[in-house]
Amino acid sequence: MAHAGQSCMQLACKLPCYRCFQPLYQAEGDPMLSFVNDYSEGAHPAILDALARTNLVQEPGYGEDAFCASARKKIRAACADPTADVYFLAGGTQTNQVVIDTLLAPYEGVVACESGHVNVHEAGAIEYTGHKVLALPQHEGKLNASELEEYLATFYADENHEHMVFPGLVYISHPTEYGTLYSLAELEAIRAACDAYNLKLFLDGARLGYGLVTPGTDVSLADVARLTDVFYIGGTKVGALIGEAVVFPRHGMPAHFATMVKQHGAMLAKGRLLGIQFDVLFTDGLYTRIAKNAIECAEVLRAALVEKGYRFLVENPTNQVLVVLENSRYQELSQKVAMSYWERVDADHTAVRFATSWATRMEDVQALIELL
Amino acid sequence: MAHAGQSCMQLACKLPCYRCFQPLYQAEGDPMLSFVNDYSEGAHPAILDALARTNLVQEPGYGEDAFCASARKKIRAACADPTADVYFLAGGTQTNQVVIDTLLAPYEGVVACESGHVNVHEAGAIEYTGHKVLALPQHEGKLNASELEEYLATFYADENHEHMVFPGLVYISHPTEYGTLYSLAELEAIRAACDAYNLKLFLDGARLGYGLVTPGTDVSLADVARLTDVFYIGGTKVGALIGEAVVFPRHGMPAHFATMVKQHGAMLAKGRLLGIQFDVLFTDGLYTRIAKNAIECAEVLRAALVEKGYRFLVENPTNQVLVVLENSRYQELSQKVAMSYWERVDADHTAVRFATSWATRMEDVQALIELL
Amino acid sequence: MAHAGQSCMQLACKLPCYRCFQPLYQAEGDPMLSFVNDYSEGAHPAILDALARTNLVQEPGYGEDAFCASARKKIRAACADPTADVYFLAGGTQTNQVVIDTLLAPYEGVVACESGHVNVHEAGAIEYTGHKVLALPQHEGKLNASELEEYLATFYADENHEHMVFPGLVYISHPTEYGTLYSLAELEAIRAACDAYNLKLFLDGARLGYGLVTPGTDVSLADVARLTDVFYIGGTKVGALIGEAVVFPRHGMPAHFATMVKQHGAMLAKGRLLGIQFDVLFTDGLYTRIAKNAIECAEVLRAALVEKGYRFLVENPTNQVLVVLENSRYQELSQKVAMSYWERVDADHTAVRFATSWATRMEDVQALIELL
Amino acid sequence: MAHAGQSCMQLACKLPCYRCFQPLYQAEGDPMLSFVNDYSEGAHPAILDALARTNLVQEPGYGEDAFCASARKKIRAACADPTADVYFLAGGTQTNQVVIDTLLAPYEGVVACESGHVNVHEAGAIEYTGHKVLALPQHEGKLNASELEEYLATFYADENHEHMVFPGLVYISHPTEYGTLYSLAELEAIRAACDAYNLKLFLDGARLGYGLVTPGTDVSLADVARLTDVFYIGGTKVGALIGEAVVFPRHGMPAHFATMVKQHGAMLAKGRLLGIQFDVLFTDGLYTRIAKNAIECAEVLRAALVEKGYRFLVENPTNQVLVVLENSRYQELSQKVAMSYWERVDADHTAVRFATSWATRMEDVQALIELL
Question: What ipTM, to 2 d.p.?
Fold first, then answer.
């Protein structure tokens, strides 16, 4: 455990470490290792520090503040698109809902693979806004460009398609819900299919930071900005308290977007809370620097699992490690480490997820490995 | 200006003061006095301190954390209703939207006075969910119980009312949008009208803290809990970064409320952010203690305005001072002090608002008075 | 009563009369005079005849049939706009809902006077689609162009209007819900206000036929087509079984309108039912010819009421006669004649409506006059 | 061709035949055989006759008329449920939309097999109302009870199901979109699965009449009423001009259903149009009598196709004959007979549909067989 005055964790952020503060809230019983998700902690200390340092600066509300303006500028630079519109929202489901609803025409739906977050784990937030999720098969969480193209060709060939929901937008996540990543070639193929049928492309980047720093990926933030019509840079799961930065490359933000955000109940009075956080995350590359910690921890864990003969539900290179456990092993392990139930595999096996994050300590990974 | 090591502002919160931190962001030009609103700053320092101290405690997401549990318990106690359900949401419009939509049947609308926030300044967030706002006249921002009763009697007497929107819920704000307060007798009369026609009562408490500590009010938090079916305790405008605590007295939360919150895009992954803040605000009465600062500042300002012969648009006892200015005076003053445009009064006069808050410094009030 | 082989009623329609058919359904007790509304009967006999004569012609569904095509052509001619798009829907509320929802942007609402049908008697059908009805005062059922302009000027002058519902479309009815008519000058003034602020104009013509043939009106069908962006020619209340012809002058129908109609559940498989009826109504001016009967009957009734000293709730020249009755007189009269309760005037008086229609028999009007 | 004075078609309806009326509208070129669908003609002559005979009877609007009352009574008797609530709507998509939206809680979706009409051919009308269609696999158009039960078990076993759309209602069609029929045992198994998880069951009976008279079926109208929570008896495709009779067995109609119908824009002012038609269809068993014609015609056609060696896309016993044609054969045949494009089978083959109906003439079936 780091101590006051030391730099925080393995990151050279040169800020005082908050870890050694005496918690106000003492967990009951012995502390349990937790790999439940990547949003179990608060925020990166640099964010808390900035909140404190700016606290009594008076600024306008609703995202009109100087912090948001500064953060937008830095994000545009990071995306290599000086013409990008940037808007800050609070959470992932909210972002998916607002973006999809405001980009679709009323008669259009959003194409997603069946495992897409919008299709399964958002309580129907898309349908709530009146739009159908047009589900295509998933391949380790990914949408296949050929299948997309075939679906679109079939749709327009159908003489009755005026009685059907028009595909208006393609939704993909990167990393996907299974932690996998698209290659640049795959993204370009999806973009080409969208172009061929005049669809927009939306990339859900709730965990984008982790994807960008995964060894072997050939997809950069600039690539994402170049190939999509809209995407978001996830903050909640990559070190912020809350917040997602929605980027509309090439001045692509819909007219009166702010009014529609307000109409969805998604506008924060204190927009500064989002602006300050993204300003910090996009200063000196903090966003990607802290993301690396998650990948490094996951790599160590994954190597150990391979060595011990565990089977993965899906192999992926990012911060979500999906492992198949015997039910008895799962029960036993649950006494000592918190993880996520993922799905039932068969009568005797359960898939679980170990998630690492910007805040994961390598010593906890080692402790987990010993337990396995 | 307070200095490091001093206690913060006039409140005996015994926490280090953040005001003297060197701001990261320097406003351009000379600093301007600002009375634009009550959410121009960040949060009360005690909140920032708690966020820092709890930062690396690992907790479950979605409001299932220990901080939310602790805050709920304290709020129940403050409301004198051990059976109250409490749910934390991010902002006011979101709260109004989610609460109204989930409490109304599909064929019902919400009754509000015409100046109600839901009727004018939420970009149609209520209608977006499919419900009509049934507007009644406003009297200094307040709904009149007799007019409400007459409207309800007329509705049910109309033989065609099956072709009309049924009134299902009454919306009031306390303090109102004009800063006025209901008396206990007025609230009881509205409650009685609701009971007579089987309507629910919802109180928007975006600025509830300020209302509760206003000298002369006879409405307590326990009264609000006793007389309403749902209300919220505003955090955003009373010292929190973001957050509103929705209270459903007497176990009144609708079934599957969390799922519907998710469906509205209103669920935060890091619910702890809301729990920690309300836990702090409801520890040792911080919420009402910091609210008093706003009222004291407003009283001083109001007395000076009276003395100088200014005319109020509406007289009210809370933290929003609504003054009628000659247009030339308004232009002149705008060079030196930030205030809110309220409405056009006539060709030569404009109504403006000076808002005080938990963070207002009395020295700034004095500076404003000198300018007036 | 006319007899088989005679021409029908006072109209030279040269079709066999159906009135003398022995009804399958015998009303209980003595037949009561009925002036309840203008949709108490089935359809003009010429329509029934055409349905019979075309019954076994096989045609495509969904409005792609030859009858709809023929009717569209005749309506375009009647509107003096060869570029008008015409679409047939089943009923008035449905038409208002579909038209308003498909013409508005998501952040826009519809401006209507407070007595507008969309604002009071459609069970919230507009709000159900997510749009607010922005209510302005009514003057004998009419919207005032100056008040409209002032509202629009105030809206855009308000610095916070991005947090408000944008006015996107103006809704007026002609005749209005009170049976009054706009003059051409009034319509032109409303059009000018719409143009000044870039709003669309929608005219609800549920009773348009009656308005067009009222002596003294200076508004023609071509004027309506010239001055509005969309309007509908009411069939249900002017001799059709069901059906409203929506006209979008100058090729103004939104893209993919048919898909959106389907999405609203408003598309009929047997679109021919609507096409045949409007084809008949717009052959040889049947639509306006049959409307005249209602106006003539109303004029006779109105003259008698004046003579007998009755007071009108609102004076109007069309087919809805709105009279104030003493409550005791109302009770007494209700035993012998069916009319519509309109509204409570005071403790002793009630306003009622006598509606005449294409099917009203002058002998029944005379019988009513004797009762009065 | 039948002649005036003869009884109509092969049915002993004893009404004058309308077929020999000189059509007002002459199709261009030689008349083409049409098997495009089962709603290509108007209505059964007995319906037109009743419309004519009742035309000038004055009745209240909105379904409050004597015809609707009479029809409701007859339908209750036919369903062997004297407690059933019956409501008449205009069309199939509208009925699906209104029924599903009013029966579901806001957080619920409707379970349907992937080929269900609500899932593919209603332009997103269900999602438009805010509800997700939860699609399960289809087996010749049918939902499998075991798969349904497994889906429900899995849903409730998932620890995250509060973040997912709750299944609230099961939608099935009978006959299905592929013309297949459920057996009584299959319906009972689906009912049991619904009961086990507290779901409602809705049966789309757009073509119910055809299903009820198919030789070999063991499902009666009383069975449907006994096993479902709501279903509808299709009129549009079985001899009516328009209209579907929604049946809520055991007083199951939701409170304020009429207001919600109005809110959906689905209430007809002249409800009598629906009442008269269903009163006729449910007098002396006309509904099932006329349905038999379709089945008899389809059987003859099917036998001929088998004999000639054609392959069916799906084998079914009702009025939709789904045949796989070589593309060249399809092109050639299209010159002489109208049919429905169904789907692309492979590069060389297309599936088409020949639909028979209450109005199909056996001589036309014979002509089609000769062409094949």
Answer: 0.93
